[in-house]
Amino acid sequence: MKETRIKNTIVLSTDRKGSPGSPFDQKAAENALRFHRSLPMYKETKLVSLRTAAEKLGVKAIYLKDESTRFGLKAFKGLGGSYAVFRILCDKLNMDYRTAVFSDFMTDENREKSSEVIFVTATDGNHGRGVAWASSLFGCRAYVYMPAGSTEARRKVIEDAGAEKAVICDLNYDKVVQFARRQAEENGWMLIQDTSWEGYEKIPQWIVEGYLTMGAEICKQLDGDVPTHVFLQAGVGAMAGGILGYLSNAFAANEPVFTIVEPMTVACLYESAKAGDGSIRSISGDPVTIMAGLNCGTPCSITWPTIRDRASFYCACTDDVSKDAMRELVCFPNEKERVVAGECGAVTYGVLKEIIKDNSLKREMGIDEESIILLISTEGDTDPEEYKKIVNS
Ligand SMILES: Cc1ncc(COP(=O)(O)O)c(C=O)c1O
Fold first, then answer.
1. 323 is catalytic
2. Which domain covers residue 317, as residue numbers?
3. pLDDT at 57 over 90
4. Based on the domain organization, do 87 and 179 belong to the same domain?
5. What pTM, to 2 d.p., does this model score?
6. Predicted local confidence at residue 141, as pLDDT
7. Are 102 and 190 members of one domain?
8. What is the CB-side half-sphere exposure of residue 310 using CA atoms within 13 A?
9. What total number of domains does the chain contain?
10. CA–centroid distance, residue 108 to ligand 1 (Å)
11. Of 176, 203, 230, which one is at a domain's C-terminal end?
């Protein structure tokens, strides 16, 4: 294991174990995609080819999946929330998730049964917005709790998306998760959380499976191209682990090099990998970062084994890396390449740029003129005022 410090990023190179198989496979993705396609507002998000950037950085191609238009929620998170709500209601209404579609839930009888369900969740913003939206879609109710430091703008969009109530608590993210868990126990509500721990795995598993729709769309959109390098940003690592598992299965013959990217102040996957004993590590205290969705101190237990065994590199970077990438992504000369990428969305592009400036690191990661890089911009301007301040500064 080796740590390399470059300008605003630390990179950990690991001895990846590469164990075969992952629970986040083709079958799981097909089920999620089939459900999402049945939603009236479903539309594939774009896979943008950043040609100007690829040329400038000296690689063959950079593909960026742009989640800023997903379901009108400006982030990928609604994929997980909606699929979990669907699976929970399939169980409640005795429907087969492999064949049920959204319209099956719209009968008066089914809507009445669904209206009895009350969801509760903790969120940095995007997951809560997705759960609020999905709950109201199916006629359920949702209570959403947010950590200290969450902005009023992020709280309000959650209520606007359909939450009964969204509340900012005086607690850090991990503690808000525990608070939501207690609220569920005390009130008989259903906890719908995008991270897992021992004894709470089924619903997070469905949430991660929902994210796989992105993976399935990407594979189709790549149209035969195989990425050599995939950079995935992580909060708890549910999205990164799910997509990593899915893509490593999909490209098993030519597995890409996977890199996990986190904010420097709250790099819990980085620290877990660095500890080297296979177990997770948490970051305590009240970490601060502009990448709100990545401000999570404890890795997701169901996706950590996939990340641990399959990711080769971990990067922890400062907020400046993301800010710089946000500004660049939105002003490429060719309009087709311009992307509104929020704080969490832009960060992998920023890290890629930093790595490419360092020749020995670039060599170590095997990045050259034949490389095909895959990035996911996981959010657009989810906090429009903050976004404007950053890109205009
Ligand atoms: C926009 C965005 N990107 C990435 C993530 C990270 O996802 P995860 O917590 O599954 O690692 C989040 C989490 O909320 C997010 O909102």
1. no
2. 2-75+208-392
3. yes
4. yes
5. 0.97
6. 97
7. yes
8. 30
9. 2
10. 35
11. 203
**Alpha helices for 223-318 (secondary structure H):** 238-250, 268-275, 304-310
Distance from residue 36's CA to the centre of ligand 1 (Å): 19
Q: Is the CB of 294 under 6 A from ligand 1?
A: yes
Residue 192's pLDDT band (boundaries 50, 70, 90)? very high
Q: Quick one: pLDDT at residue 18?
A: 74
Pocket flag, ligand 1, residue 290 (CB < 6 Å):
no
Cβ proximity of 221 and 160 under 8 Å: no
**Is 20 a residue whose pLDDT tops 80?**
no
Q: End-to-end CA distance of the chain: give it in Å, rounded.
A: 38
Quick check: 19 pLDDT over 80? no
- Give CA–CA dist 274/336, Å, rounded: 39
pLDDT band, residue 21 (cuts 50/70/90):
confident
**295 CA distance to ligand 1 middle (Å):** 9
87 lines ligand 1 (CB under 6 A): no
The pLDDT > 90 percentage for the chain reads 96
Q: Pick the catalytic residue from 65, 74, 77, 323.
A: 77
Query: Each residue of 86-104: pLDDT tens digit?
Result: 999 999 999 999 999 999 9
Tell whether ligand 1 has an atom less than 6 A from the beta carbon of residue 269: no
Query: Same domain for 384 and 244?
Result: yes
388 and 322 in a common domain: yes
Whether 240 is in the pocket of ligand 1, judged by its Cβ within 6 Å, is: yes
Catalytic site includes residue 124: yes
Among 124, 309, 319, 383, the one annotated catalytic: 124
Give me the CATH number covering residue 241: 3.40.50.1100
Helical pair 384-392 and 319-329, crossing angle rounded to 10 deg: 80
- CB distance 190 to ligand 1 below 6 Å: no
Give me ligand 1 centre to Cα 235, in Å.
5
Is 54 in the same domain as 141?
no
Closest CA to 50 of 31, 73, 66, 39: 66
Point out the domain boundary residue: 203, 236, 270.
203
CA distance 209 to 194: 11
